[in-house]
Amino acid sequence: MSPITFPGTVAALCTLFVSSVFVTRASASVAGDSSPSARITIDALADSGPVNTALFGHNIEAAAGAGIFSRTIMTALRTGGGYWNPATCAPNPAILDHLKTLRTGMLRYPGGCLVHNYDWRKAVGPLSERGDWQFGIDEFLTLCRSAGAEPIITISDYVLPAEEMPAHAAQLVEYLNAPATPAHPWAMRRAEWGHPEPWAVRYFELGNESAHGNHSLKPRSEFTPEQYSAYAVATAAAMRAVDPAIRIGINTPPGPGTDMDSSWNRGILRGAGRAADFLVVHLYAPKIRLPRSGPPPFTDDQRALAAMAVGDQVEDHFATLDRIVIEETGRHIPYALTEYNAVIDSQTPIRFSYAAALASADLVRFFHEPRSRVINAQYWNFLNGWFGMISAPHDGTATDSTIMERPAWPLYRLWGQHFGDRLLRTEVVSPTATFEGAGSVYPARGTQKVPAHTLGTQEVLPQIKLAAVQAAGHMARIISGSTLSVDLKAFTGDQYHVIATLPRSRWVTDAARPASVAAPSPDYRITFEARYTPAAASAAASAPHLGLGLNDMRGWNQTRSGIPVMGITGTGEWKTFAGKLEALPDCPGVDVLLRLLGGKTAHNGTLEIRNVRVTAITRPVYPEWKLVTASASRSADAHTLYLILFNKSDVAAVPVDIRIAGFTPGSARYWEVNAPELKATEGAHETVSGSLLPLPESSGQSITHMLPAHSMTAIEFIQKP
User: Fold this and answer.
1) CB 152 within 8 A of CB 107
2) Domain 454-510+519-617 CATH assignment equals 3.30.1660
3) Does the first or last residue of the chain, that is N or C, have fewer Cβ atoms within 10 Å of its Cβ?
């Protein structure tokens, strides 16, 4: 619960005590109204372009998971997880109806990390020759056409050696888009297998979250930014040689948006930005990681409120990404949000909470704004899986009675059923609220952003401890007082060694702090330079995966708070690395880890690391967050005006004054979705369905409506004859 501020002249100030937390609320006068309110101004003549239904997109997981996750879920191969009925060789009608209800404009295949080991050739051809791969590329594209959705296909990053990937990807484009002529043998096979005409797939992304490697697949592989860039440039060129009309995206690591300025992002933009038609972003905001043991640092209510506060900050994070793209490429590049959701806890049912759903639905509003530069977005994910907005039998036999609809469903249904064809310019003046911060959501107070500032930097090498590294059989030493050198001899397996412990007191001194003032809880940034030189005998073998890490000093098993900074390759060249740990609020300090991941291959060589520094950084403070957001559109014939509204307050209903220029409504109806509380995982439903909305007697007057706390509202205005 948080202090709420309303714009305008303050008339009264009261303090409410709710759920043992003080909530301060200021009443205000807005445009002559005696109650605190938001103001929505719509210019029906200011057309901002077509509504992009590719922003109403979803994900399908339909590939083998062994070696990536614990096992392969066979229904992913046979039915796409429930989309396809193999008995009828057609999309499941009930699932298809649900997709159409949401106005689904794009579907992504074959999923996220499953793509690391995805060989598309296993997913085409006669069903009798495919084994378990009964839901493959042609079935996916049939589903897309049945749903009226544009396909986007993810090209594998690690299924073959990097030098073989360009030809592999080009053959897929040939299969999908080339005419069935002798010059195109894969297209000839497509025709032979039942689809003579090209599928004309336009959108492809190169890999999925490639920065984190291919999980536990063998052989282990993990691109550096430079290696990924080389893969992307070569693969994009080969694909465009087959079909110059396709659009290709390069990928960034998943995150809550606070990490847009990363060495990976800058590296791939610098190395492959010229080959990219769009930049793939996976947004999971907010991200709040909970410890494995002990009391959680945030209550369910705080995490739910973080989901409401994060939207304004996400918009600022995208402005940061805009700046980085321009700095590295000299041009704007559109964004594809091929995965997004809120991760207020990925391990418990609260991941399905109404708060996570409402935050995600509000992101769709931001994606529609031209300034976002988002050209498509796919919610993670639609059917089943770890975050599915609906759950149904995996075998493709779902009926309406066997589909369970989670809180995201009714919210996205409002978008699908009550939004128009042309965007309209919409301005919002909203009440605001404070938030003290949680996880990746920074504090929100006042009216101006206060940037982060540096508390200080610790040099790590003078404090280094080598006993554990030496005990593991490695020759580890400090050379010339400035470089850590570790000789690896026939090294196999994975090792994690704490080489330095840096208590928070090194940066934050409590002695001069009044007892009533909380100590700042900084984040930590690590930077270093490193190189790995393989011994001559093993130079041709794959390099081990080497790097440093930064963990909460209480340990990963207890806190689940830490970051790896990997990518030291066997080129023998010095390279710079950096990473930031968003620390838990009670983090007492950090451990620096030496991460040596050798797998089963024996490695011989010398790892050198220098200029290791850890900097403590205060968190930025953002302005108070807006409670009310809105997006307006109209029908193609301009007869109907649509307005989507969100009230993200956890406790307060907010009245809105709606002013429309260039359109005189003769009647209006509204729909509302709500749930018992933000943290609820059940009970979200349409609380109002098409009720009449009273209109003022005189044209030109503002239209008033009350938005209940934590609600989404859709209003349809019909033009007066």
Assistant:
1) yes
2) no
3) C
